[in-house]
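User: Teach me something about this protein's shape.
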Amino acid sequence: MVNKNQTKQGRAIKVNFQDDKVTAYGGLVLAERLATRLGLWSNLEKNLPKRRGYYDWLTIIKSCIMGLLTGSRGTYATEDIRQDDSALALLGLAKAPEEATFWRCLDELGSEEIQKILKCELLREARCILSRSPRRQITLEGFVPVWADGSLLEGSPNREGTKYIPEKGKGLLWSTIYVGSVLAAQRLARKSEGEKTVVRSLLPEVVKEVLKPTRLDRKALLFLDSLHGDGPTLEDVEAFGLHYLIGANKLVLTQKVLQDQPEFVWEDTGSDPSRQIEKSGICVCQIQCAGWKKARTLIGKRWMLAGTFLYYYAGVLTDLEPADVKHIMNRKMSYAASLLSLYNRKMGMEDYYKEPLEDLGLHHPPCQEYELNAGFYAVAALVHVLGRCVDLLGGDRKERGETRRKDGKTAQASEATTDEALATSAASCDAAGARDESCPHNRRYSVGRARSSSKPLSHLLGEYSEVLRKTEKKSKQEAMRDC
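Assistant: First, the predicted structure itself:
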């Protein structure tokens, strides 16, 4: 309507409806292409045994991997993909198994034969990603961090493998080893196993299959908490030739050695009113427990709380020399302060657990039987590494192209059709992403459907919208020249 307040005549908008099938999971094209380039599908098809039944192992595992990336959870991981014909076409799948079929398959996925195959594939995939990633994306202060830890998952009296850990409670223990930000090895602990036992069994494989082939072992720095600070673990790590920073609070001798240090060796580090610390200090000394063949360097720390007269002590074991951290000491930091600042970075590495536990829903084991859960987590680990691959090889948001609108809000990616243009655009995204060499360590991935939450529809495809726009523009220009 035209009046004195509205002087412009409205224009009619023509809408043409097409019968093309659409999917909310267009971003899976990128993950599927990256998995193909890494050889994930071809290696699984070659190494997995032949399966009786309608679905082969590759179809089952691929449906689960892509289903978890869409936001499906647990044994229902394949359901959303199974009911989406367009998504199946994009992924090259004729059909996907239903929930009951996938649940039955988990028992075989947890068998010793297939567990070994999936473990080798995880190591190979991690090795490929690390060898192709820019070094500055996987290093920390000049070192390649290797971090091993365990996370206590949801447990119950009826769930096999549930154990009780003081100060943490009951649950299943999932132990992992990360190289940089890439998951290299994982295993659910049995009821009779602890975190230390599982980590010690996984570490030799990570060194042999990941660190040495990529020549990252020369700069590898192993971070472990005090649970692993004992003689056998130290001897294993030193035999592998790795540098290490390992908590020493487990050792009874640590407290005594630090208490016996003279006052002049302590470097004053001041107070911290926010933590109610009145005095604090750090020092460097040597410690040799009974049964150790040699003494090892101990970085000690002490602090006194406000209103008290006693010091609390903590220590970190290391083999690093002042020459190894000279670049950190050049920032006017002492040898002890440099090593403690490195060890404090371990707390940030624990954020790596947030991606699989929250984004993939792995905090809640889907089954009661240990073998079924072990099979599920072996496949879910491949999903986690594939998502990290998108981050490391895909590039930073700044380099990909901004997706913000003029009003400052993040633009939502629209539904993607299954026509030839989408496949062409995805290939261009893949090639452009592989050339990009800037991406933060701790950024989450998601290629799920549109929801009312902060995660946009097809997150990956949205971040690559600028590359898509340039590709389409170039195609139009070429078409006009041909005319």
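Now, about its shape. Confidence is low (pLDDT under 50) at residues 397-465. The longest strand covers residues 277-287. If you'd like, I can walk through any region in more detail.
User: That's plenty for now, thanks!
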